[in-house]
Amino acid sequence: MREGTEAGEGSASERLLFGGPLLYDARWADHHNAYFEMSLWAMALQLPRMVAFTARLALRADRRALWTVGLGELVRGIGQAVGLIAVNSVLATVLAAGTIGHRVQSAVPAMIGVAVTGVVGALADAASTAGTGRLEPKVERVATEMYLARVARVELAAIEDARFNRLMDSAQYGAGSARRMVKVCTGVIGSLVSFAAAAGVLTVLHPVLLPLLILMTVPRSWASLRSARARYASYLRWMQHARAGRLLTQTLMRTGPAAEIRVHDVGPFLLRHFRAMAEASEAEQSRLATGRARVRLLASALTGLAAALTYTSLGALLATGVMSLSIAGTAVLAIRGGGQSLTALVLQVNNLYEESAYVGDLERLFTEARKYTIPSGGEPVPDKVSLIRFENVTFHYPEDVGEDGGENGDGRDDAEKPAERKRPALKDVTLDIPAGRIVALVGENGSGKTTVSKLLAGLYHPDAGAVRWDGVDARTLDRDRLWSRIGMVGQDFHRWPFTCRMNVAVGRPDRPVDQAAVEEAAAYTGADTVVAELPHGWDTLLSKGYRGGHQISGGQWQRLGIARARYRDADILIVDEPTSALDARAELEVFERIRKLADGGQTVVLITHRLASVRHADLIHVLDKGELVESGTFEELLRPSAAGVFRELYEMQRAQYQDVRVPGRRMPDDAEEGSAAR
Ligand SMILES: Nc1ncnc2c1ncn2[C@@H]1O[C@H](COP(=O)(O)OP(=O)(O)OP(=O)(O)O)[C@@H](O)[C@H]1O
């Protein structure tokens, strides 16, 4: 069976791997006005704004280079106009009455004029080319920096939001487009000035010639704008599809999944689906090409008609004696030159139109990002916080609104969604995190432990209730200062593809690397023994795909991750499953050290499934399906009278070990049984 089907419904591969078609619905764009403006008119209106936007980027990037380019193009264009007038003068003199020697001699000054304008034009062109070359990469860099700075500063919720993600996706090409816009704008100015020169000369020669010249270029302009619009519309519609295709190929190339791909023989499977998706996109490319060919054919026919009309009119003017031969000669030159500049102008405007669509996405991202930007400033975080309290906190993760806005993308209303989709991740949770203590969060998978830690870290705000730092709502606190107080080792802490040293030192990126502190943090988690075995010690690159790159085990990574949080030396340390990959000895050591942190005044929020390890926690909060069901010390929660979730889970874990007898060793229960028997 062929796996690619109708593009509209998405291929079978899309449905199988990604759960549905990956094509964006253009109607959705209309509903959400101005996500992207599709009509020719709307895009034409947005063009000057995009040019101004790029000019602002260019001004920011290199003001001098921008002036050089602008002046260079202006001088070049004026040179062309003057050159054309000089050519006309040469022709008029050469075709005038008199001896050939005398006529040529009289034409010499005009010829010198042609040569001088040529030289000036060439110099101006060189200056403009050099300026453009200098400006282009700078504009791209400035636009990329602005893009990245904004993306890095939006709330986590925005990064997880499908719509914002889509905008980030399309806007990432905006910087490259802004770079190309510089060149295209230069070309537009050049062609515009050249055309103005030719048009001016033609108008002087005969008023009917200019409209005829413009008529000749209308069909081609229409054709290229139409094609550009179709290409952009298709790009937006297929963007997610292209990203998914890239994901398949990159998965095949990455080192992480390489072992599983080989053992499970996933390679041919991925390739098959890549081919199916690529074929769907090829069908779209060929649809675009056919449309383009059809439009171009029609445009060529219309241009031919207009050209015939123009030259017939010129012939008629000559035949009726309205126009002299020298003027007709200059007119032919001006029509050819003007036609060329107008064609170039149309082409450049077309490019401008296409690039401006992508730059438009960049501008929209800047606007959207502003809405989601993490506010700077706010109330200062108290110097010595003694208590953080979750007060009746309810929290839902932001929902994906789907392609149809209020609907799920499959036509169902929100009201028709299964009720469980709307279950809050946290529901009316009230709990305390006293400073300088170890507070453990336990509960089954999906019970809300990580969510509590994310709200504590200020990555999200509650929908209802508040997280209060000594009574102050965290919502009002200065988030940067709040973050400077927090160190976090998440379940999926990042494995930076940098050197071993940087993997620890990145815990405090705002400070110069302090090797002594790095080593102290590493010794703290046993990461020093890992480093000792690396081929280049602290300088070993921890990324297998690069030259000299090295791979370490999951447990070794975990030691580095905890060392990073230790290096950060924050007041509050959040550790989410810190020992899941550690061996038994390392696990005991790490827990012992984490315990000592609290002795030193640090607050430790520990999330773990190893219930025996929370024995030393000062306070344990037990979560179940987003609700706080128990709180207390280890002993309190294990009392027979408690008989709650914690005791039940603990009994289950304990039973696993009790059932296993180690030959030659007496189990504690044996002793109890023995003494009971005596
Ligand atoms: N980024 C997210 N977007 C949407 N829903 C999420 C997100 N993260 C978690 N959830 C949902 O929120 C609920 C609580 O998840 P959370 O990660 O807090 O559980 P947990 O107790 O830490 O689980 P585990 O023990 O498996 O790590 C789950 O139903 C989960 O599906």
Automatic annotation (TrEMBL):
Residues 388-650 form the ABC transporter domain. The keyword Transport does not apply. Its main location: membrane. It is found in: Cell membrane. It is a multi-pass membrane protein. Residues 398-425 are annotated as: Disordered. Keywords: ATP-binding, Membrane, Nucleotide-binding, Transmembrane, Transmembrane helix. Residues 77-354 form the ABC transmembrane type-1 domain. This is ABC transporter ATP-binding protein. It comes from Streptomyces mobaraensis.
